Amino acid sequence: MTPRPLLLRFAIAAACAPLLGQTPLFTDGTAFGGSKVFSEGMNPLGNPARYSQAPSGWYFSFVDGDQEAKDCESNLSSAASQDPVAASNALGNLANGPWAQRTRAYGLQNIKKGASLALTREEFNGLVDNPDLSPSHLGSPAALGLNTSTLQGRRAVVNRLSLGGGGPLQQGSTTALGLSLRVERWSDNELAEVYNAAGPGAPAFGSAAADLLGGHATSAKGWNFGLDAGAVLELTQGVRLGLTADQLNEKHLWGVDLQPQFRAGLQLDLGSSASVALEGDLNSAQRMPFAVKQQSNSASLRYAVSGSAVVILGVEQRKLGANSVTRGGAILQIRTDSLLLALGFQAGQDRPLKSASLMVD
Predict the structure, then answer these.
(1) How many C-beta neighbours within 10 Å does residue 322 have?
(2) What would the pLDDT profile of 55-69 be if each residue is shown by its tens digit?
(3) Over the stretch 210-256, which tens digit does the pLDDT of each residue have?
(4) For the chain, what is the largest distance between any 2 Cα atoms, rounded to a whole number of angstroms?
(5) Phi then psi for 335, rounded to 5 degrees?
(6) Which of 216, 164, 138 is nearest to 43 (CA)?
(7) Which own/partner pairs from 245-252 qualify as long-range (CB within 8 Å, at least 24 positions apart)?
(8) Domain limits at 140?
(9) Residue 263 belongs to a domain
(10) Of 209, 45, 216, 36, which is closest to residue 124 (Cα–Cα)?
(11) What percentage of the chain's residues is helix, strand, coil (to nearest 5)?
């Protein structure tokens, strides 16, 4: 089979990247039901104007789990069935849900009086199926032996140094501004295509899927520098307007045009214990490592159960090219004067995305 052009492969694999817009480092972000515009101030990829909202201290973070289109991994396993009807049906289902992604991230951060210095590492392993649905290649062991369905995988790793600061313009001000500078070292690799087994028998998708999500060495290396900004304005008591801007400095890296992306949100206080936030990207933009534009909208509810416990619930819809993914999530925070423990969970996957973070003063 003739290899597809590299940029086309980027486009096909774009559906593997629902989290690449913003990994929920330090259990802070829209993937777990939180907010980006009105973040808790702990995520170096969040709104830098909110850094002053986070308690001063040392922060540690871990994120791990899978995201996938509906039943993707189970359909991949069924496509390897010795039952030709089950395998053929699974290939048909994969056309509507062809991607899966595994994410792992680590972070260390120090925040003090609205200033943030963070070291983070993110690892993404994704796969996408390109099913062959030709009727003459489905329905029997002999036909499946001629099937040309493929799996493609990508691995992207980024090591990042982030430095930023933000908070109210002056004491008592209702306007907060912030800036953040990111220095990123990216490494990337397109994994070998996995073709169906030749001759009679079912496509060998099951073990291949596990391998492609398991992690591989990367080869290509590249640098990126990013400048982000944010602002929050209190329009009236309990009503806030926020804005973020990512990658203000345009950058071209490996065929990906990293252009500014702007996001706006509105937050309303519901009494003294709860607040709700609605937000969305104002434009679509490409983000590493895929040359496909993405855009997202989200809603979140923050509720202080007590003086030491906070629950955050929300939902996010992210669109990448023609594919969209909707996820719900929850965050539990336990706060004391010198410690913060946060746990995040995203519903909807067989191996759900989850996060834990700890702050000590």
Answers:
(1) 9
(2) 999 999 999 998 777
(3) 667 776 677 778 888 889 999 999 999 999 999 999 988 877 766 77
(4) 75
(5) -120, 135
(6) 164
(7) 246/285, 247/285, 249/225, 251/224, 251/225, 251/226
(8) 6-360
(9) yes
(10) 216
(11) 15, 55, 30
To which H or E segment does residue 143 belong?
helix 141-145
Q: How many CA atoms lie within 13 A of 220 on its CB side?
A: 13
**Is there a domain that residue 1 lies in?**
no
User: Could you give the number of structural domains in the chain?
Assistant: 1
The reply to whether 139 falls in a domain is: yes
| Residues in a beta bridge with 177 | 167, 231
The residues pairing with 204 across neighbouring beta strands, listed in sequence order, are none
Residues 6+ apart with CB under 8 A from 156: 20, 123, 124, 186, 187, 188, 189, 218, 288, 289
Q: Give the integer Cα–Cα distance in Å for 59 and 42.
A: 8
Cα-to-chain-centroid distance, residue 120: 14
Instruction: State the sign of the Cα–Cα–Cα–Cα dihedral 80, 85, 86, 90.
Output: positive
Taking the whole predicted model, whether its pTM rises above 0.85 is answered as: no
Q: Residue 202: phi, psi to the nearest 5?
A: -90, 160
Rg (CA), the chain: 22
Phi and psi for 301 in degrees, rounded to 5?
A: -125, 125
Q: What is the CATH number of the domain that holds 187?
A: 2.40.160.40
Half-sphere exposure of 261 (CA within 13 A, CB side): 23
Per the rule left: phi > 0, alpha: psi between -120 and 50, beta: everything else, 254 is: left
DSSP code string of 179-238 = EEEEEEEEEEEEEEEEEPPSSSS----HHHHHHHHH-----EEEEEEEEEEEEEEEEETT
Question: Residue 82 domain-assigned?
Answer: yes
